[in-house]
Design a protein that fits this description.
Layout: H1 2-10, H2 18-25, H3 27-36, H4 38-49, H5 62-83
Amino acid sequence: MSVFYWIIETRGATRWSLPLVIVGMNSIVLYCMSTLLEPWFTATWKRHFGSGLSEMFGRPYAPMADSGLFLVFCWIAAGLMYRKRIYVRI
């Protein structure tokens, strides 16, 4: 934590940390999305595009590919919320 503080706050190198900032600003939304939307997203993706993309890296790695694709979907949603300055806080 102190290394990140030194890099970001002291040296001012903030450009590389934007993906982490986007996840941190909407972490509650991402948690809810992962709980509520993940089964729906996976079923919808496979229904419309088939399971060929998931099994492109091999059948044992298909769940990891599905999770990675869902991660990209969630990060894009969080990025759009960050761009429009929509933050969910408790």
